[in-house]
């Protein structure tokens, strides 16, 4: 099992750092899956995570100048590592002006991702900062636990409002309640509602638009004689929603959510080079 | 003694903040040549001294008051102050410089008070009367010139190095050979490597203003206590000198210019005594001791 990668371009490095920062806000521990073409950050929906799960996918070619990977075996040319994304975020944080960043899988005292940052210095030789981030190697028999979640059979799919606005609304609501109800309809309307003993607050968003989903048998397409005004709702943990919104450092190209009535909310945030899916189950 | 002086706030305030990292109380020790602030931590493994020469002050007046029982050469008796009571006076050093026109410090030994008076804009005067405790003098004696390893570096460089370590990092190890310098997270035999992120920074000797390595060594000291000095030296832009020897012997970080001198002397861990139960480092700079 081998892994070596290098980033030389500063813009790519900053972009990669921002993605890691977002992941670090969503998960204390997660799985990094490496394949020849892509990197995945995966959080599976175990009870320990409060049932939320995450799937983040990026093409290595968009970030790395060099990327060499040899998986556990020829037919299974992939590597699954468990790590604390906050450590990776910290290692990259001070690499803003780096000449190059190299990442390598090593095994000194235990399996580690070694991040070596080459920084400019006052002398002819560069300054090298090395961070050894401990990782756990996930054995192949457990890989099935981390498969890509399928898009649920949703009732409503709707584009999200401007994330900055949504974030400030949710942050204020967080002070009043632990749970938030997201409801939306096929008419581009979404409401965020909270209720406590003393107060209930609803924020209404209009004209958001509903994404068109093409599917083989057309059963998920929006206009099927369904009542466009009827609301689909799910009550979720407000902290999870706030973490998702707080972690967004750049506006995504597309941001939408799929709601299964009273079951789950599936968020999809698409940027040019990275896609992030986050599932928050509804509270019973 | 009676002391009256006016001073430049930002630097003085930063010195107090730096010393606050060592301990909750400090020695306020005015002498004829200037004012020394000293502190030592409870385990006696870290000692700090900042000395402001009389030229640092706009006005410095020190008068010895002879007392019948004082016979030896120390005409002044240092006093001990609780840092917590002094810090509020110098909170937000940056803001202070803008709002405060003058600061004066005067001592009145007969009623055991030190008075800090800030003359601010718009005629506002803030007066702080703090009680002090008389106490024995405190001074660490450390023969810097006998250290085989001496590095001098601009304060910006040290700050740039330490920023890579998390603020929670307690101890770091400085490892030198004539060819390279390396600062790294401290690890011991029973460190759980599967849970700990380790950081290491390698520098070339060329980055130092002065580089002398007489003996290859690896010394481990407390980073938390040093951070105070780093912030202080960044504020004053005075380069920092590092004097040290093999592990177990103290390491001194010092800065010196015409107006002030600062030294932070920290004990270093000694490999042979790592098994000892006491959490503090083995060798300490004792008063009058090496």
TrEMBL record, chain A:
<dbReference type="GO" id="GO:0033314">
    <property type="term" value="P:mitotic DNA replication checkpoint signaling"/>
</dbReference>
<keyword id="KW-0227">DNA damage</keyword>
<comment type="subunit">
    <text>Component of the toroidal 9-1-1 (RAD9-RAD1-HUS1) complex, composed of RAD9A, RAD1 and HUS1. The 9-1-1 complex associates with LIG1, POLB, FEN1, RAD17, HDAC1, RPA1 and RPA2. The 9-1-1 complex associates with the RAD17-RFC complex. HUS1 interacts with POLB, HDAC1, FEN1, PCNA and RAD9B. HUS1 does not interact with RAD17. Interacts with DNAJC7.</text>
</comment>
<dbReference type="GO" id="GO:0031573">
    <property type="term" value="P:mitotic intra-S DNA damage checkpoint signaling"/>
</dbReference>
<dbReference type="GO" id="GO:0030896">
    <property type="term" value="C:checkpoint clamp complex"/>
</dbReference>
<dbReference type="Pfam" id="PF04005">
    <property type="entry name" value="Hus1"/>
</dbReference>
<dbReference type="InterPro" id="IPR007150">
    <property type="entry name" value="HUS1/Mec3"/>
</dbReference>
<dbReference type="GO" id="GO:0035861">
    <property type="term" value="C:site of double-strand break"/>
</dbReference>
<dbReference type="GO" id="GO:0006289">
    <property type="term" value="P:nucleotide-excision repair"/>
</dbReference>
<comment type="function">
    <text>Component of the 9-1-1 cell-cycle checkpoint response complex that plays a major role in DNA repair. The 9-1-1 complex is recruited to DNA lesion upon damage by the RAD17-replication factor C (RFC) clamp loader complex. Acts then as a sliding clamp platform on DNA for several proteins involved in long-patch base excision repair (LP-BER).</text>
</comment>
<protein>
    <recommendedName>
        <fullName>Checkpoint protein HUS1</fullName>
    </recommendedName>
</protein>
<dbReference type="GO" id="GO:0000724">
    <property type="term" value="P:double-strand break repair via homologous recombination"/>
</dbReference>
<dbReference type="GO" id="GO:0000723">
    <property type="term" value="P:telomere maintenance"/>
</dbReference>
<keyword id="KW-0963">Cytoplasm</keyword>
<dbReference type="GO" id="GO:0005730">
    <property type="term" value="C:nucleolus"/>
</dbReference>
<comment type="similarity">
    <text>Belongs to the HUS1 family.</text>
</comment>
<dbReference type="GO" id="GO:0044778">
    <property type="term" value="P:meiotic DNA integrity checkpoint signaling"/>
</dbReference>
<dbReference type="GO" id="GO:0009314">
    <property type="term" value="P:response to radiation"/>
</dbReference>
<dbReference type="InterPro" id="IPR016580">
    <property type="entry name" value="HUS1"/>
</dbReference>
<dbReference type="GO" id="GO:0005829">
    <property type="term" value="C:cytosol"/>
</dbReference>
<keyword id="KW-0539">Nucleus</keyword>
From TrEMBL, chain B:
<protein>
    <recommendedName>
        <fullName>Cell cycle checkpoint control protein RAD9A</fullName>
        <ecNumber>3.1.11.2</ecNumber>
    </recommendedName>
</protein>
<dbReference type="InterPro" id="IPR007268">
    <property type="entry name" value="Rad9/Ddc1"/>
</dbReference>
<keyword id="KW-0597">Phosphoprotein</keyword>
<dbReference type="InterPro" id="IPR046938">
    <property type="entry name" value="DNA_clamp_sf"/>
</dbReference>
<feature type="signal peptide">
    <location>
        <begin position="1"/>
        <end position="15"/>
    </location>
</feature>
<keyword id="KW-0539">Nucleus</keyword>
<dbReference type="GO" id="GO:0071479">
    <property type="term" value="P:cellular response to ionizing radiation"/>
</dbReference>
<keyword id="KW-0732">Signal</keyword>
<dbReference type="GO" id="GO:0030896">
    <property type="term" value="C:checkpoint clamp complex"/>
</dbReference>
<dbReference type="GO" id="GO:0006281">
    <property type="term" value="P:DNA repair"/>
</dbReference>
<dbReference type="GO" id="GO:0000076">
    <property type="term" value="P:DNA replication checkpoint signaling"/>
</dbReference>
<dbReference type="GO" id="GO:0008311">
    <property type="term" value="F:double-stranded DNA 3'-5' DNA exonuclease activity"/>
</dbReference>
<keyword id="KW-0378">Hydrolase</keyword>
<dbReference type="Pfam" id="PF04139">
    <property type="entry name" value="Rad9"/>
</dbReference>
<comment type="function">
    <text>Component of the 9-1-1 cell-cycle checkpoint response complex that plays a major role in DNA repair. The 9-1-1 complex is recruited to DNA lesion upon damage by the RAD17-replication factor C (RFC) clamp loader complex. Acts then as a sliding clamp platform on DNA for several proteins involved in long-patch base excision repair (LP-BER).</text>
</comment>
<keyword id="KW-0269">Exonuclease</keyword>
<keyword id="KW-0227">DNA damage</keyword>
<comment type="similarity">
    <text>Belongs to the rad9 family.</text>
</comment>
<dbReference type="GO" id="GO:0031573">
    <property type="term" value="P:mitotic intra-S DNA damage checkpoint signaling"/>
</dbReference>
<keyword id="KW-0540">Nuclease</keyword>
